[in-house]
Amino acid sequence: MKSGKKYSDSFKLIDRSKQYDPEEAVSLVKQTAKAKFDETIEISVRLGVDPRHADQQVRGTVVLPNGTGKTKTVLVITKGPKADEATAAGADFVGAEDMIAKIQGGWFGFDVCIATPDMMGLVGRLGKVLGPKGLMPNPKTGTVTNDLTKAISETKAGKVEYRLDKTAIIHCPLGKASFTEEQLTENLRTLMEAIIKAKPAAAKGAYIKSAVISSTMGPGIKLNSLRF
Predict the structure, then answer these.
(1) Single pTM value for the model
(2) Domain limits, CATH 3.30.190.20, in the chain
(3) Helical axes 81-88 vs 148-157, angle rounded to 10°
(4) Sequential pLDDT tens for the chain (228 residues)
(5) Which CATH code for domain 16-68+159-227?
(6) At what angle do helices 22-32 and 181-197 cross, to 10 degrees?
(7) Distances from the Cα of 211 to the Cαs of 54, 70, 144, in angstroms?
């Protein structure tokens, strides 16, 4: 497949045999973001764990200090006084049985679903539709909670979930190409520190196998994982 001129020009800026320090990699990824829209800067981290084993799962959330550049649409499933709290905290959609019926009808107009523990009996019915989309509320990611104000404010501020896929890779956004190098580097370091801290006790050998950052339309840039 023939690459476009912009991609080819960006590719020439990168030494494919080199692993770049975070600051250098961020500078390069901004230079390679040549699209007419504000590209998302993403990272892919390959871990030395076996995702088939429950004791080697890596999953969690972290609030990126400079956000992601995207405001997330939040649905909260709750009722009573907690519904009022969710609305006051800035949730975009709040409801209970009505929202569950809406989702069952095929509506997915939200990026994050948060629920109070008392509603999980009802929310459990949505597992087959929300699970595959990564939208199912989960206590491990702070989306099943009674502290709705904190959960909503963190989500709006730039909380991201990092989660191991079947190939032992974590994919996560770091921000936008319009961010400053300092903002992207700070987000990168914050995320990598969280992933390193989440290392399972059962993991053996090298934990961070490789890490690559790229813009939406740009080539991958290898990171020196020893610099974190």
Answers:
(1) 0.81
(2) 16-68+159-227
(3) 30
(4) 345 565 556 556 788 889 999 999 999 999 998 889 999 999 999 999 999 999 999 989 999 999 999 889 999 999 999 999 999 999 999 999 999 999 999 999 999 999 999 999 999 999 999 999 989 999 988 999 999 999 999 999 989 989 999 999 999 999 999 999 999 999 999 999 999 999 999 988 899 999 999 999 988 999 998 887
(5) 3.30.190.20
(6) 130
(7) 23, 23, 30
List, by residue range, all CATH 3.40.50.790 domains of the chain: 74-156
CB-side neighbour CA atoms (13 Å) of 136: 16
CATH number of 74-156: 3.40.50.790
